[in-house]
Design goal:
The complex is a heterodimer. Chain A is an alpha+beta fold. Chain A has 3 helices and 11 strands. Chain B is elongated, with a radius of gyration of 29 Å. The chains are: A alpha+beta, B mainly beta.
């Protein structure tokens, strides 16, 4: 039986070597998945011109009301999540949930449905693997993003996706004013930067409100 | 009240290149909106740097803010459906826009003497306050005041073609009117609700016998963080650690199997 043991030992050696090699080159799946993402609607159709409805006092018809969203659904990637309402962290960043299954709406900013960019963020991965926005990079032009509160359901359509290096991300634009309601989804992308303790890029998805 | 009539060279540009690149992370953009305020002009198409950017814009319509690269752009207006030919438009201007600023570009006056009226728009307001300005874009109307009915004028002596500076007010409901300097009412605007943290433009348009108002929101204030969220809890390190653990476990299992087998030989 000595020969058989020798075979087993060789097998073991091969197995150990294989594992060691695997360890030295871990596949960083988040960075692979977000490597070549990005698109934008390439038509002037994004500009809709609406004849203002005749009103007694046109100034009073201008403001749109938003919602404080409690749930988020993205049917195309089978995503459903509870929405937390969070502000900023101690260092001024947009705060995110401390679990991997919820998302957070930046509540000091614009409400979904108001003019301006309402922002919802979620984790791409947790310690053990995929988190709620793992599949965000799979979104396609025109996919629907649905947010709800108790009374209203708002549907947005994806028009732009980009993965932006953190240093180039213009925060005031991403969270800024637009003359129509927009929804922005953010998660981490790119390769992991050990010095900063976060990924090098952010995946940003822009969607515009479709009529209720 | 100071009248601001910015010359052609001051401002404006439009999209396309912007929409095509879609990069909003780029901070070198300006916001521009176009207003059709020429009462007898047909619906128009707007070309920017030779590209069709806005289609069939009717009288009294506005484009909303478009994000455009900072710089100078060739803007040309054609009657809707007309084939584009450089320099043949009813209106043309080389308009320069600065990064981070917002502009309103109105096509004003009667068609035979159509012209651009350009103003820089405010993107800020004191917390809890409201801001408003008026534009006189009615080609044959006399100079007017805008003020509280039976009270003070907020804007005095606005003349065609001009857009006033902003006035910052307490948010609330105002009974406003457009009136001649002698107090004769031209257009009532009773119960005007001016919301907090909001900036408005109110443009008087059309000819004097059918004077009417276009109201636009220039800006609504809201909070913004200083930095992007940190949205990954995992690191490649952790997945490496998991591999190590798994590998270790397998090695142990393999080794114990060997030992097990040896013991039972």
């Amino acid at each position: 039986m000595y020969g058989k043991n020798g075979f087993n030992n060789k097998l073991l050696l091969v197995l150990v070597l294989f594992l060691l090699t695997g360890c030295q080159q871990p596949v960083d799946e988040v960075s692979v998945r977000s490597e070549n993402v990005g698109f934008t609607l390439d038509e002037p159709a994004a500009v809709t011109i609406q004849q203002p409805a005749p009103a007694k006092n046109p100034i009073n018809e201008l403001k749109r009301s938003g919602i404080q969203p409690t749930s988020l659904k993205i049917p195309s990637i089978e995503l459903e999540a509870q929405v937390q309402h969070l502000g900023t962290t101690e260092n001024g960043e947009m705060a995110v949930p401390n679990n991997i299954e919820d998302v957070s709406w930046f509540s000091p900013g614009y409400q979904p449905g108001e003019n301006g960019r309402a922002v919802i963020a979620g984790h791409v991965d947790g310690v053990d693997g995929p988190a709620i926005f793992w599949d965000l990079s799979e979104l396609q032009l025109g996919d629907e993003v649905v947010v709800q509160d108790k009374e209203r359901t708002l549907t947005f359509k994806v028009h732009t996706m980009e993965s932006v290096p953190l240093d180039l991300a213009d925060v005031s634009q991403v969270f800024g004013y637009t003359s129509s309601p927009e929804l922005v989804l953010i998660t981490c992308s790119g390769t992991y930067d050990f010095d900063r303790g976060t990924r090098e890029e952010r995946l940003i998805v822009y969607a515009s409100l479709t009529e209720e | 009240m100071k009248k601001i009539l910015v010359s052609f060279s001051v401002a404006m540009a439009l999209v396309f290149s912007l929409l095509a690149s879609g990069v909003m992370a780029d901070s070198h953009t300006a916001k521009v909106r176009v207003v059709h305020a020429s009462p007898d002009a047909p619906a128009v198409d707007v070309y920017v740097n030779g590209d069709l950017t806005l289609e069939e814009v009717p009288f009294k319509a506005d484009s909303g803010y478009l994000e455009v690269p900072a710089g100078t752009h060739d803007v040309e207006v054609f009657a809707s459906g007309t084939e584009y030919a450089a320099g043949e438009g009813v209106l043309q201007a080389d308009l320069a826009v600065e990064a981070g600023k917002a502009y309103t570009v109105a096509a004003a006056n009667l068609l035979e003497s159509i012209e651009f009226v350009v103003a820089e728009d405010s993107m800020e307001v004191t917390e809890g306050q409201t801001k408003v300005r008026v534009g006189h874009l009615s080609p044959d109307a006399p100079a007017v005041d805008v003020g509280v009915i039976g009270g003070d004028a907020l804007f005095s002596g606005a003349e065609f073609p001009g857009i006033t500076d902003y006035a910052e007010l307490d948010a609330g409901t105002y009974d406003l009117e457009i009136r001649l300097p002698d107090g004769t009412q031209v257009l009532p605007l009773e119960g005007t609700e001016l919301a907090a943290d909001t900036v408005y433009s109110v443009f008087a348009v059309n000819t004097v016998d059918s004077l009417e108002v276009i109201a636009l929101v220039d800006y609504e204030a809201a909070g913004s963080p200083d930095g992007m969220p940190t949205t990954g809890l995992g690191t490649p390190d952790q997945s490496q650690a998991i591999w190590l653990l798994l590998g270790g476990a397998l090695v142990l299992i393999g080794a114990s199997t060997l030992v097990w087998k040896k013991r039972f030989q």
